Structure formats: structure tokens, C-alpha cells
Amino acid sequence: KEVMSMAKEEKILVVLTGGTIDSKFEPTKDTTVPSEQSIVLSYLLKLKLYNEFKFEKVCMKDSRELTLEDQKKMIVAIRKSGCNKVIITHGTYTMVDTAQYMQDNFKKSKTIVLTGSMSPLEGFYLSDASFNLGYALASIQHLPKGVYICMNGKVFKPENVDKNRLEGRFEE
To answer: Using alpha carbons only, what angle is made at residue 107 by residues 70 and 117, rounded to the nearest 5 degrees?
Structure first.
């Protein structure tokens, strides 16, 4: 019998920045607000995946509140990690801007995927969050080096995508 051996999986860095994927509904404000602690971390660990992860919480903000300093912290976290595969959980409003910033700073030295959701991962039965997160994780294992956005079951390049707020999805 031939025994199949699995090569050790490369660690994937998950950079947490907040956004709707890591938010909760706040009835007094009639909107979602980023949680103080990430649900993404415990969610991925509970799935018993074969992948190994490193997690780095940069901030927990609505992406409209992200600053250049926050983006610089993402860069530092990615460089310090030593990981060549990176998933950034991010709010959808400025995801394209951050993806372009990552592309400018990393060229094609790493595989970086940004993902998020239109509704929170926790507390919303029909949220797109778990699907987008799983799709990003599956995609990063096969994409060549570069920066991508994984949303709505599609892989986009930062220079060829926009968020269509009326449709509630990303498109070329």
C-alpha cells in the first residue's frame, strides 16, 4: 500500500481589523458596531481546519474610521509575521483602498486576501460572513502571489473591483 503524506501546511496570518464581519447589532444605534474582541479567531479555531493560523489584531473599527496609521500597522504585522499567506478581515466600505495600499507595499512578494461581509458573522442566520471567510481561506491556498479581494464567491484584483452599495455586493 502506498501511504500518502501531507506536506506541512504553511501558516496563514489572519489580520483582524474589525468591520461588519466582526461586529454586533446595536439596537440603540440601529446599526452594527465593531466588537471589542474578534469572533473570527474563535470561529476559525472551532472548525478544526488543517491549516495553522497566526492571528494579529490591528484594530477593531468600522472601515470608514481606518486611518493611514492603521494601514501601516497592518504592514508591520504582516512583515513581522514571516507568513507568506495573509488574510485580512476588513470592513467593506474601504476594503478596496486597503487592498490597493497592500498592493503598493508588497508588490508580488506575498499572497494577501482581503475579505469581509455585509452582515456580522455572529447573530445573523443568513450572514455572508462565514461563506466569504471560507472562500478566502480556500482561495489563498491556490492563488499566486499578489493582493486580492474575495467577496461574493469571486476573486477580484484591487484595481478591478468596486462595492455596489445598491446591490450589496462587490463587482468588476
So the answer is: 50
